[in-house]
Please model this.
Amino acid sequence: MSCACGHNHNPAPPVALGGEEIRLDRPLVSLSGRLICQDAAQMLLALDLLTEHAELSRAEPGNLRFDLAQAEDPLVWELNELYADEAAFQAHRDRLKDSRWGRESHGIRRDFTRSEPMPRLRAEMAHDRTAVSDLLTRAFGGEDEARLVEALRAEGSLALSLVAETEGTLVGHVALSPLRAEAPALALAPLAVHPAVQSRGIGEALVRAALAAFDGHTIVVLGDPAYYGRFGFAPAELDSPYAGPHLMALGPQLPAGSRIAHAPAFAAL
Model:
C-alpha cells in the first residue's frame, strides 16, 4: 500500500492458523493497533516522522517486524510490531525516549493491543516465498541459502519446506530435498532461525518436525556435530563431495562408502 508520504508500507501477510506451537522460555511481544491524528497538521507531522521511526525500529536487534500502513482514512496509520521478548520491547521503548518520534509525536493518539504469542510450525505456503528468502538472507548474512531454496523449489526438489511463524512473521525455516542413494534418503538443508530468536528452541523444533515427517528415511546433513548430535545424527562414511566430519546421517544405515548425490541446485553453491 502506498501512503501520502510516497513510501510503500507493506502490511503483514495473512496468518495461517494451526500448526504445532513452539513453547519458548520467553514469549515474543506483539503490538497491533492504530496511530490516530486529530487533524491535517498532525498528519503532516506523522508523515515527517514515521519513515525515520520505522527505519530505526526495524534496525533494532530485537525487532522482528515493524509494519506500517496508512489506512483509507489518511489520518490513521495501522501498525503491527513484533519483538523477540520483553527485554527487546523495553529496549525499543528506551530508544524512543531520545528519538524525534518520541519527542515530537505525543499529541498523536495510540490505540494498541499487546499480546505475547508463541511461534507455530506449518508447511510453507505460496505467499511465504519472499519472506523465506528474506529470512535466509538475514540468518546467514548472504544470499546463497536463499538462492538454494529458490532453486530447489524451481526444480521441484523441495520434499519438505517448513516454517515457524508468529502472527504472519516467519522466524524459522527448514528444508528437505531428495538424495540419490541406495535407499530412500533426503538432505536437510538449510536450517535457519531469525538472529533475534536464535538459541531458543525454534531450530530444534523445526528439525524434529522435519525428521518426524520422513520417519523411516535416512536424513543426511552437513553441519555442526555438536548441534546435530543431539538429534542422533552421527558421522557418515559416504561417497560425496561433502564427505568429512561434518557430513552426518540419521535413520536406516546407508552402506559405508556408498554414493549419495544432492539435488542439482546444490551444485551452484
Notes: Residues 133 and 146 are 5 Å apart (CA to CA). The domain at 120-268 is CATH 3.40.630.30 (Aminopeptidase).
